[in-house]
Design brief:
Pectin_lyas_fold, Right-handed parallel beta-helix repeat-containing protein, globular, Immunoglobulin-like, Pectin_lyase_fold/virulence, 25-stranded parallel β-sheet, Beta_helix, 14-stranded parallel β-sheet, mainly beta
């Protein structure tokens, strides 16, 4: 006999189900945080919505996503959104911050400045009263969606020191002095900008040095016209990368240097001066000064190890964030490693950013730092950044291995134009982290490396394993201001790490470097395959030193100085180089100590389009093979469609079949999805042309 459920019981179950499904919480520009957060009475801020979500979660358990729907419009982010374990969702009921359908609401972490007035046709000014009221200052300014330049000299290019000497004031016990003064003897034309300045104005001036892979930013302590020198203080110079007469520098925050369109200067009185760019009109100008350095802080319980979990951000734009230099300046540090991000996560699990924008920042974009797992950045647009785009892991190895960041995926994003405050920042970097995936990203217009993986120098233990760097388009990096960089740069023992199916081109360093694929100190156990590398300065592939790396089935073509380079010779097998195509019409085939390496090299195709007879260092093909190298390799034109136009498709595969080369579709590198998204990823042709002009000028010298 079939039993029936009483109607009143069905109704009760239905009501319970409804109660477990939270209604969306709404945020709107016209909202008020005293409202209940309904569509009719929305809240005003993300923090208000967070508080409302906490209240709802305490009232009843949720079985469906709790959505905070942000209505179309612009918002001022007076303080960062802070999320803790109190805000965690569950896998079935995550907390979701999302823009309403069809819109991307914008949150500004800065204040809109007052209207400008003319001093003259080419100089405007405005008053920022909070500067004098609260002794506030800022170091970035954004005009009409573009980063303005704090008054600096020279406007183009750099100064160079004549000599650099250091006086140690406190040695300490480390490899460099705890405290020292540096005397920088400089050309008179650079010193003239500082001579005669009142001490208060002089101490506001900032000097930024570019030395190899680092930047040093310091306030100018004093000048000596008699010695033609400026003085800075701080830590002693690092013996592995000192400031020398081969370094570059610029002077910043000088009112006298306010002489070019796009430059600005802020007086302590609160008067801000700006020289307009061509086409800007005083009645159509939007100016933002950054107030916050961060947009979102997600931080779990460090003491108990409890994570913030299951939170998503969708269709939101975060713009305008700053960075203020310490009064003591910024010491050099590879990759600007400790520079924080506008979105910073610690002790966080399953936090996702989907179709979001981060723009106009003083620091980095997103950092999955300590004890993060299962995070995702997908289809986001990160641009006009002060430092890096996305950072993963910490720079220290914790004794508790459970705090190692892992399984972070950064897929199908555009990371473009960065390193404006910290040129040595890397666009996309994994410090200590395992099992992360960096895929299908568009990475361009940064001043240093595109991707960096690993953070141990040499053969000591490294926790960075099984990371994957694949299908990325990495290009137009370096800009001739720093050295020792790569499109993809690796460090340390990294078994299981794979770098594959990337397209890397137009990497240009100031001095040495500008490599496509760069296995640096101790890189071990890495597979580099199916990559296309061309138009890089020093070579397409360079190994400084490492062990048992596999470089196979790649195309290296038309790199400027050389195609292949190896530096430190070691007794163990450094790498295996097989099934690769090496084609060139400029530079040499090999550089440095490639011929002396302990390596396996075979089944490759080599072609010098000029002579048709590649030279292996100082050896002919026959002598090279008699020495036991490339026994089954061939010298032949691989048959690219149009290498001069960077079209490296193969017209046929008959030649490369002889070496076991497996053709790969390099057009799959970069972003995927709609045509609008792909078009957004394309580098502006004017930027590419500017890069080519820079390379041509450097190559003439």
């Amino acid at each position: 006999m079939r039993k029936t459920v009483p109607l009143f019981l069905l109704s009760s179950l239905f009501l319970l189900a409804l109660e477990s499904v939270a209604q969306p919480i709404y945020v709107a520009p016209s909202g008020n945080d005293k409202n209940p957060g309904t569509l009719q009475k929305p809240l005003a801020t993300l923090t208000g919505a967070r508080n409302r979500a906490r209240l709802l979660r305490r009232q009843k358990p949720l079985t469906r996503p709790l959505e905070i729907v942000v209505r179309k419009g612009e918002y001022v982010l007076n303080e960062p959104l802070v999320l803790t374990t109190d805000d965690s969702g569950s896998e079935t009921a995550p907390l979701v911050f999302k823009g309403e359908a069809g819109s991307t609401p914008v949150f500004y972490g800065g204040m809109r400045l007052n209207r400008f007035e003319k001093v003259s046709d080419d100089l405007w000014k405005t008053d920022v009263p909070d500067v004098r009221r609260y002794d506030w200052s800022f170091e970035q300014l954004y005009i009409n969606g573009q980063r303005a330049i704090r008054a600096q000299t020279p406007n183009d290019g750099f100064f160079q020191p004549k000599t650099v000497t250091e006086t140690v004031l406190s040695k300490g016990t480390g490899p460099f002095a705890d405290f020292a003064a540096q005397k920088i003897t400089v050309p008179l034309e650079s010193l003239n900008w500082l001579s005669g300045l009142p001490e208060a104005d002089l101490n506001q001036a900032v000097v930024t040095f570019y030395h190899n892979w680092d930047n040093t930013r310091k306030p100018v302590l004093a000048v000596s016209k008699a010695d033609t020198a400026l003085y800075i203080t701080g830590e002693g110079m690092k013996p592995w990368n000192k400031i020398t007469n081969q370094s570059l520098f610029v002077l910043e925050n000088l009112k006298a240097a306010l002489d070019a369109p796009g430059e600005w200067f802020l007086e302590k009185t609160g008067t801000l001066y700006y020289r307009p760019r061509p086409g800007e009109t005083i009645d159509k100008i939007t100016a933002f000064a950054p107030v916050n350095e961060k947009f979102v802080i997600i931080k779990g319980d460090e003491t108990g190890g409890k994570r913030v979990k299951n939170i998503r951000f969708e269709n939101l734009s975060f713009q305008i964030a700053g960075y203020r230099m310490s009064p003591f300046g910024v010491e050099p540090e590879q990759a600007a490693a400790r520079v924080e991000a506008t979105v910073q996560l610690d002790f966080a699990d399953n936090i996702r950013f989907i179709t979001c924008e981060i723009a106009h920042t003083g620091g980095s974009g997103i950092w999955f730092r300590r004890a993060c797992a299962n995070g995702r950045v997908e289809r986001c647009y990160l641009h006009d950044l002060g430092a890096s785009g996305v950072k993963i892991g910490e720079t220290i190895i914790r004794p508790d291995s459970s705090e190692l960041t892992h399984h972070i995926t950064v897929d199908n994003n555009i990371l473009r134009s960065g390193g404006y405050v910290f040129p040595c920042a890397v666009a996309l970097i994994i410090f200590h982290g395992r099992d992360n995936v960096l895929s299908h990203n568009e990475i361009a217009d940064f001043r240093y490396s595109g991707v960096s993986v690993g953070w141990v120098w040499g053969y000591a233990f490294s926790p960075s394993k099984r990371n994957r760097v694949e299908f990325n388009h990495i290009h137009h990096l370096g800009w001739g201001v720093l050295s020792d960089m790569g499109g993809v740069y690796t460090l340390g023992v990294s078994e299981g790490t794979v770098v594959s199916n990337n397209v890397i081109h137009h990497i240009y360093a100031f001095d040495y470097g500008g490599w496509g694929l760069y296995t640096d100190e101790g890189s071990t156990g890495i597979v580099l395959e199916n990559n296309l590398v061309y138009a890089c300065k020093s070579s397409g592939f360079h190994q400084h030193y490492g062990k048992d790396n596999l470089i196979r089935n790649n195309i290296f073509a038309d790199n400027i100085k050389a195609q292949l380079q190896g530096t430190r010779v070691e007794p163990h097998r450094s790498f295996s180089f097989t099934n690769n195509i090496v084609y060139y019409n400029t530079g040499t085939l090999l550089s440095s100590n490639w011929a002396k390496f302990n390596l396996v090299t075979d089944q490759n195709c080599y072609w010098d389009a000029r002579s048709k007879e590649p030279v292996f260092g100082k050896q002919s093909v026959q002598d090279w093979q008699l020495a036991g190298k490339d026994q089954h390799s061939i010298v032949a034109n691989p048959g690219f469609v149009d290498p001069e136009a960077f079209d490296f498709r193969l017209k046929n595969t008959d030649v490369v079949n002889q070496i076991g080369f497996k053709p790969f579709d390099y057009s799959q590198a970069g972003v995927y999805g709609t045509m609008a998204w792909k078009n957004k990823a394309r580098l502006d042709s004017a930027v590419a042309q500017e890069f080519d002009q820079m390379v041509a000028q450097h190559e003439k010298k």
